[in-house]
Structures
1.
Amino acid sequence: MSKFVTYVIRLPEDQEATREIVNGVRALVEKNGGEITGTSNEDEMTILEMIEQHEDFREYIADEARAQAKELGAKAVQ
C-alpha cells in the first residue's frame, strides 16, 4: 500500500469555512503522525488527466513519471 494519498476538495465560498477545513485537515494529519508533503491551490489531478488525454501526449512520459514517483515514495519511507 502506498504511503501517500491525494484528495481534491472543492472548498466553500465562505472564507472562514475554508480556513476551518484547511486547519482541520492539517491538525488531523499531524495528530495521527502524518506529514503533508505538498499542497496546491488547483485541481492537479484533473489537469494531469487532461494532459494525459491530449493527442500529442506520449504514454512513456506517464510511465517514466510514475516509476520515478514510486522511487521517491520508497526513499521517503526509509
2.
Amino acid sequence: MYNPTDLRKDTLIDLDGKPYKVIEYAQKQMGRGGSIVNTKLKNMINGSVVDKTFRNDARISPADISRQKVQYLYSSGDTLSLMDTESYETIDLPLSTDENIPKYILEGGEIDALMFDDKIIGFEWPKNVFLKVTQAPGGDKGNSTSSSTKEVELETGIKVQAPQFIKVGDSLKVDTRTGAYLERAK
C-alpha cells in the first residue's frame, strides 16, 4: 500500500480496479497539520486522464501489473509485431499502443511490456538508448566548441539535433522521453 506522499511521477497505482499511471503530482499543506496530494492520473487501458486528490491518511494500492520481456520483430503499416521471449508466441498490436517502439528499439531489440489481465497495456522504457548515426551533414571544420547543432538521422530512422562534431558511425545516447541528444557514446 502506498501513502499519498509516496506517490511520484510514473508510479503505477490501482484505482477502482483499473491501473493508472501518475503523470503529475503536487503535495499541499493544509491548516492544522493536514496535507493533500493533487495528482493527474492516466488510465493505462484507455488513455483517459483524470485529476484525483488524496488526503494524507488515504491508502492507495499498487497496480496489479506484471512485466514481461518481449522482442520487437517489425512494424508494418499500423501494426507492431512482437514476440514473447518465454513462449515465442507472436503478438500483433496496433501501432497506437506505443508509437515510440520503432523510433527507439531496433528490430530484434527487447523491451519490458506492462501486462494487465494478460494483455499488454504499455511498455516500461529505459530512460535512454544508444543508436548509431546513419546520415549526418558535414560539420564546419574545427567548430567543435560551438553551440550550433545539425540534424542527424539515426539507424531507426528518427532525426535528432546533435552537435556539429557528430559524424556517420558515431553512437549517440538519446533520451526516450524527449527524443533529445544527450551525449556521444564513449
